[in-house]
Amino acid sequence: MIQKLRNIGKEKNVSSLLTNVVIAFLGLLSFMLLTRQLSKELFGDWVLFITLATFVDLLRFGLTRTSVVRLLAGADKERFKNLLGSSCRINLILLGLICIFCWGVLGFLNYSNISLNQGYKLFLTWYPLLALCNLGWNTASALFQAEQNFNRMMFVRFANIGLFVVFLIGNGLWFNLGLLEIVWVNLAVNLISSLWCTIKKWDGLVFLKYADKTIEKELINFGKYSMGTLIGSSLLKSADTLIIGLSPILGSAGIAMYAIPLKLTDLLGIPLRSFTMTAYPRMSKKAIAGDLDGVRKIFYSYSGAITLLFIPVAIFCFVFAEYLILILGGDAYADSLPLLTLVFRVFTVYTLLLPIDRFTGVLLDSINKPKLNLYKVIFMTIANILIDVLAVFVFESLVMVAVGTVLFTLLGIFLGFYFLRKEIQIQSKQILPEGIFFFKNLNAHIGK
Fold it and tell me: Of 5, 298, 413, 422, whose CB count within 10 A is highest?
């Protein structure tokens, strides 16, 4: 029995899931602490700052991470150094460009006296420094995923967000510091994680001298599509917040209210992120070997299993939505409880659709069709932005913003299957049966 538990603990799906659970729990705790330490407007500014930072992080690392993970599979020692060194050099160049852009725009806005939401100004001022502070651990994450070393990934992220949570607890009890000081501490904890990765030679900085222009071109040629896909995917998630922030009616308070049901929905995505992190290298390996039957089987079993896993969770969240929102947001959001409850219940429908949509995109990348995945995400993003503009500026409704999320996800599923049927003859009717088979034969997956 003890040996079986050890084997389960070492299994990559479980390890990945545990990593994401720990990080998500700490993220949830920090979210709850911040809702109680900041006013609605200041919390909305924080959410906008973090949303923009996450979006640009995906842009930066999307250019190299997916391609590095794919190409590191089976790489020899020399190519290993070339890949990490080349990836590091690309990321350093992007960092310089980001600094020029953010501080250049900030200087123009200050010179022109143009009024802008405080969250946007916070981002333009401090993100370049955050980008420097989180460079090391973000670059190292590609190595961790390629090696399927999720325990190491968990410890690095724990050093980051764990220290931030400790600070927030102290801030709530004794310090009572404001938003700006919280941003400074966030920079510091990111720097600590990055320095750790640099010292341990995980971030590729030590291999910078092995950077190769040919490999950089190879990374960028694949990465330009995956970066576009990640940008689009991030816009799908962040466009709601960004557009709400531009509204003179909803503004920062609207962002703060919308962030609560959105955060609860993010928690439902923990198993999905974990399984995609393990499924992508596996499908890529089989695709490179020409085993398309194996690729299809992994797609069916993973997407089906996660969809089945989400059904009881979504039902629970739908029924107990009011209590979950009060636990997360606290009494300050009690006056908005009916609205936030309705928004969250709409999001539970979205979570049931998300696994199949996400895995169609992962499968397109795995079979070396990132361009088709990019097209899929572009259409979804355009649909989302158009719906958000109508919802925010015409209807002035957070519920309509949430409904738009369901609609563009349905569009994504349709496009994903349309492309995949042409490429590898995917059959949607196989998903749920293979998902059931996955759980019936769970022991067969342990240790893979």
Answer: 298
